[in-house]
Amino acid sequence: MTVRVTSEESGRGSWAEYYRDLDTLPRILEYFNNMGEFIAKCREHFAGCNILEVGTGSGLMAIYFSQMNYSVTGLDRDPDVIASNQRMNAMLGGSVRFVVGDILRLPFRENAFDACYHQGLMEHFDPPEIVAALKAQTAVCRRVIFAVPTIRWKGGVYGDERMWTGQRWLDLLAPFRVIDIFGMAYNSLPTRGCNMLGRRLTSHRPAWLYRKLALRSADEIGFVIEAGGRESGGRSAESC
Predict the structure, then answer these.
(1) pLDDT bucket at 238, cuts 50 / 70 / 90
(2) Residue 6 pLDDT more than 70?
(3) Which CA distances in Å does 144 have to 19, 103, 147?
(4) pLDDT band at residue 31, thresholds of 50, 70 and 90?
(5) Which range of residues forms the domain containing residue 85?
(6) What is the total count of domains within the chain?
(7) Looking at the domain assignment, is residue 87 inside a domain?
(8) Domain-embedded: residue 240
(9) Nearest to 183 by CA among 238, 222, 148, 136
(10) What is the CATH number of the domain that holds 214?
């Protein structure tokens, strides 16, 4: 689950200032508790050990993966965010290579990485930029795992997030092959119940139906994509 606040609510003037507050054990533990489901999906779908994170945020997830024996590169366009990441990397004994760069013009060769991931990033862009950024990622990475808030999101916002339905996100992904769709932040009791039943039932069709019901009400939605989608005749996951 993503924690977002407006600049007015937080009193912070930049993302770097926001992420610098994630440097105490209580805040770090809260962060990983919120990110547990997304981290599990990343590890399930990583297509190798050479990993890229774009939009590094606090840097904590990249540092975690580096300590799980992945070779991790983290990229962000804000030099202050990268400087904060590097301090956290040194403090926690990580081995991440953090670099400044533009997600629309990634400074890496084709197929340089096995997988790329990001969470709470794409909703800050307009549709043409989203597609362009994901195309840049699938050019340098075999597979991309990412999560975004949906229109049902009840947390705070920083100021420019696009809160769309899961279906609208899926429509934007027509140029890609969608190989998995997953939900996060099931905040209502019925939705949590549907998700739990879907994960525990052993009969395939009832389990699928409960998971799909939960997915439609998820406050956050995640996708796993590769190059080559519906526009090029590739197979895609079912609609959410």
Answers:
(1) very low
(2) no
(3) 23, 13, 10
(4) confident
(5) 7-232
(6) 1
(7) yes
(8) no
(9) 222
(10) 3.40.50.150
